[in-house]
Predict the structure.
Amino acid sequence: MQNISLFDEVMPEHLPSDKVGVGMDVSVGQKNDVPAVDDKGVADNGVGDDDMIGDVQKHDVDAELFWQSCLSELKHELKEGELNQWLRSLKPVFADEMLVLFAINDVFIRRIETHYYDKICAVVARLADGGGQDVSGVALRVMPLVPKSDKADKAPKKQKPKSSKKPTSIEESQPLEERFTFENFVKGKSNALAYNACQELTKNLTDKAAKHDTHLYFIYGSSGLGKTHLMHAVAHRYERAGLLVCYFSKDQFFKVTINALRGGEGGADSLLRRICQADLLIVDDVHMINNKNGPKVSQFLMTLFGEFTKGDKRLILASDRPPSQMQDFDTRFLSRFEGGLSLAIEPPDIEMRMQILQKKATLLGMELPKDCAIFMAQNMPPDVRRLEGALNQVRANALLVGGEVTLSLVRHAIKDRIEARARAVNAENIRDLVAEYYGVSVKDLIGKKRARNIARPRQMAMALVRELTQDSFPEIGQVFGGRDHTTVMHACEKISELRAEESSVEKDYQALLATLEFA
């Protein structure tokens, strides 16, 4: 099997020739009875070209909602990068009881058929069955082109004069998410420091006399807590002030930098000059741009670092960990990261999760009763993306059954997510995580050693199992070497006392709790 580099474009020569075909059409349970495909890449299933083109061009609300529910489910089976690159761009349409997914070209069709089709079919079948949706299969097709005759009938548009308005981003910069604004961000104790710092950064942007002593803002926290949202919110304010912004995800940064280092687009010096035109540079997931993954790319980042930490320029970096815990960077690089303003974002508590769900529901135009918000906040991980995914699932189910959002509907809509999380957070997994956290072996935790460096982690693990699972004291004791239930009760009481008396114990407990809640 030929290996494809992370940075190579997936071109037809990478794919087996026997799976290449314009307008490939494959369907659930219908692989032996596929509608004929004409030379325009549209299946001949009784739907005319004009009708099909119309279906694709208009916004099919029902199909879009159903497909968004499918994507929410597929998040648990595929990497976020795969979803973004191959599946999110598909245009869904319901036609003849089929979910038709339109892709931009044959490359997408072949890739999806080879790598993701079976998973898509399974999710579609499950959601269709659970939601009463009449979907008999899934078809993959190339997006049909608008016939030339249609274009000819339209009056030629007058060419717009070139705008003299200053551009707000450079060519290589990725587009910003419109909904990621300060107004849509839910502020709470867990993100207040980062939120306030970003708000302060955007004050007096057009005032040349205003002083900003901080050039580097280093935002860190686990995935799905709002780091990208905050950075986009700052970028929107910069653009509204007429300032130039350059935003990169780690993948885009690797792509454009490697292309420049290979001599493309005028080379690295040319890319450096273009990026340095910006007033604000934002780089997401900076912890991945290290010497191990790409030493020359990492060095280019440090060159940019020097340019954007002087004068009126600003630099925002985001990571899943603080600078002190970043690996495979030169010490001099880490010291420069630590020289900026470090802003931690912690997982939201139950109350804040409810606020996030209510805010997202309002933006979606749906009413989420308080009891439903409480149930979702209590049973979903403290991850904004997963909360939003669960909310989209609830909304889709409500629209499919044509009813109001009730606690019963919510329980049914997200039961698979709750069950999956329950399977991940069990006594054995908690025990193993605690052992890893404290640097002891699982054998020691279930053994008879009573040394403090073993007994304390054992007690911590027992207390966490008691809080996060429904296991009884005797059941917990069995997981820890068959200990008596009174030993487990004593461990839980001891950890409760120590958390109130020693800040280090409380810190360890909360760190372990946050890690386990993301399972």
User: Anything to note?
Assistant: The two ends are 33 Å apart (CA to CA). Residues 1-59, 146-166 have pLDDT under 50 and may be disordered. Residues 57 and 91 are 9 Å apart (CA to CA).
